[in-house]
Design goal:
The complex is a heterodimer. Chain A is mainly α. Chain A has 16 helices and 2 strands. In chain A, helix 12 (about 225-230) crosses helix 16. In chain B, helix 4 (about 75-85) packs across helix 5. Classes of the chains: A mainly alpha, B alpha+beta.
Amino acid sequence: MEEPQKGKTMEAIHSFILASVLVLCPTSLPADTSSITADAEQSRSAGTFTAPRMLFESAVVPAVAAEIPLQESSPVTETYVQDENTKSVSAQHADVEEKEAQETVSVESKAVNEQEEEDGPEIADPLVPFNRVMFHVNDKLYFWVLKPVTQVYSHIIPEDFRIVFSNAYDNLKAPVRMLNNLLQLRLKAAGNELIRFLFNSTAGIGGLGDVARDALGIKKQEADFGQTLGHYGVGHGFYIVLPVLGPSSLRDTVGFAGDRLMYPLTYVSKDVLPVEATVGIAAHEKVNDTSFRIGDYESFKESAVEPYVSMRDAFVQHRKKKVEQSDPISKKR
Amino acid sequence: MNLKGKGMKRQLIIMMLLLCLIFPVSAVAGAALETVKGHADRVMEVLRDPALKPESAKKIKKDRIRAVSVKMFDFAELSKRTLARNWERFNPDQQKEFIELYRSLLEDAYADKILSYTDEKIVFGKEVPLTEKTVEVRSTVLRKTGEIPIYYRVILKDGVWRVYDVVIEGVSLIGNYRAQFRKILSNKPPESLLETLRKKVDKG
């Protein structure tokens, strides 16, 4: 049952990587923040933002400039591959995989840290008007729909059951994590996810319990396709707030679609699992997931002075960290 | 007797000197972690104190946590690093007020959040030097459905380690506020930011 699915999935992933490389230009990874900052500095002092090239190549523009609605400019279609990245990836990856991504902090990264104190990672935001509306829609969606539904739900379903659901949904996503770890050449993490999937699906009764973590001490190894793209040098492109799903970018939206292709339920026949059921499952997963984080969004809003900017920045920082974690060698963080 | 005592004393001194030679780095290096851990333990004590369990004791809890936070954080450093190059645009009085307002904002925002924690566990990992005077202390909060990495960035001033940034799942607190404040300060004077903060803090 696993085999043909996997073949199909791999094929899909390959075409996806190809497509995304064509759509998005590879961009400089966070290691080059110094040059990016220099770029940003330049355009800031110039006072205008007239560099579409920068938008698609570095995906980093000063927030000030990002607020100015940009004129539509067609994405540059020329592609170049950063040889530095691809080389290091194949050569040393496997053996250093033993070490956790966070194990070592190199001296260079300190310098970058200090640099970021001044200019944090930023993202192009040409869709500000749309994004702000979506941000507002999602906000209302949370307070008017998701929160009340979740409150009733967690009132009815005891926490232990909700944890079981959470484990089951998580187990279904194990193939996604495994394949992405594999694509990022994090072989040990991929192996761990494989063991977790096999173990939790059997001994954990279809993933209802996280036996692999509790009994074997093998922890989940998060990985997603947006991260995989970032790992190979693909930049965000631009920021986009998706309905329901929330903050994302062009890269991560492609990543989301890629992850769906690796998701087992995508390949269950429509006869067995009609569209309504798929939507129902997704909705339940969302509610179940939210039941553990009621209050998080509220305190985010309470703490923010500029909620829209705060969320965008948190998204960029969080995703940057994820991409760095996927590459323990050149970033060593 | 006297002689023996002297000899023992000398031995002790030599041993201590030796110990100092062997463990100087680790002794200093562990200090940041121990400091942060100590503060975190005290907060957890307050949260778990059965005497403070009833809802009516919420205020006492908040006050005690606030007392810890004052010792734990270097709000001046935190403010300076948040505003970064905009810090210079504030005059000394404005800087002072900013520090106070920012502190209240953070307290209001996170007090309730922290109070909602009951059975979460904090595991302290290791510390990573960032610069000569700054260190990152890494911890993980264990929740029932997963783990949240929380890193404290601390700075050594006058022999005391104090937190100047908290990085949760890769998101730096001061970095996030810097982006927000920069947005406001990009087309408004420092006074407007202070006014915005005053309103925000009053409401909370």
